[in-house]
């Protein structure tokens, strides 16, 4: 927000300078008009960025290009996690297009489909990761208590969260590891 206000202020100053240069160019020398052109362009582009219109236009242009190229979006996205989920779903497909013989529920699972504690969708009690891999991902010993697991999870999430500059795939892996190791 502060950056946008600053850009709008600079754009206003440049617009005023452009108007002054145009007036001087008309009354004094046509050469001054040459200096008004880049100043006016800079004012316009700063306003265009600060107003948010540039971002909107770029998104609209990308959507049009995807539509015209006939690009088909994959459900769930193109991340590694989404691809793995689609592969697991295909592997569970049974006869007649039904998901598995038990209608998509795991026979060993006491939980139903829902939202996990980390906000991601969970299916069954195992989050798709062996316990040894989960312990290595979080960096805990095999005999670690639930409080140690939770503390290690929080530390790893801070390191790997995409909003903090971390890797999205690693962040998802940390969440799956925590889902595997937490008490049910």
From TrEMBL:
Region annotation (Disordered) ranges: 61-173
Alphabetized InterPro entries for the sequence: DnaJ_domain, J_dom_sf
CDD domains found in the cross-reference section: DnaJ
Keywords for this protein: Chaperone, Membrane, Transmembrane, Transmembrane helix
SMART domains membership: DnaJ
Biased composition (Basic and acidic residues): 61-95, 151-164
Biological source species: Halobaculum marinum
Keyword Repeat applies: no
Any Pfam family the entry gives: DnaJ
Transmembrane parts of this sequence: 5-24, 30-48
Name of the protein described by the UniProt record: J domain-containing protein
Ranges of residues in domain J: 133-184
